[in-house]
Amino acid sequence: MRPHRGRRNLLSTCAAAWGAALQAAGEISVGTPWASDVCTTSQMFCHHPEYLARAAGVMLVLAIIAGLISAVS
């Protein structure tokens, strides 16, 4: 296992989790039960979904960069 693989997996997981929370923020108005649970837990993210979008984008870019670095080395 390469040393950067764990970091890349962590970044990818964070990006996916923040993307799911962003989806929950969009579905809270529909009344989806899982979205209600997520937004009850993290109210700041559901009231400001742009924070999640920015964080997910940054983490995704970092995961891609980590993947490229590990492929080169």
Walkthrough of the structure:
With 73 residues, the chain is mainly α. The chain starts with a helix and ends with a helix. It contains four helices and no strands. The chain is elongated and about 45 Å long. Helix 1 packs across helix 2 (33-41) and helix 1 (5-27) packs antiparallel against helix 4 (49-72). The model has no long low-confidence stretch (mean pLDDT 76). It has one domain (5-72). It has helices at 5-27, 33-41, 43-47, 49-72.
Give me the secondary-structure topology.
Layout: H1 5-27, H2 33-41, H3 43-47, H4 49-72
Helix pairs in contact: 1-2, 1-4
Task: Please give a handful of descriptors for the protein shown.
73 residues; elongated; 4 helices; 0% strand; mainly alpha; single chain
Distance between the termini: 13 Å
The amount of beta strand, in percent, is under 5%
Task: Please bin the fraction of helical residues.
Answer: over 70%
Residue stretches low in confidence (pLDDT < 50, at least 5 long) are none
CA gyration radius, whole angstroms = 15 Å
Biggest sheet features:
none
Extended strand count:
0
Specify the overall morphology.
elongated
Work out the count of structural domains: 1
User: What class do helices, strands and sheet pairing give?
Assistant: mainly alpha
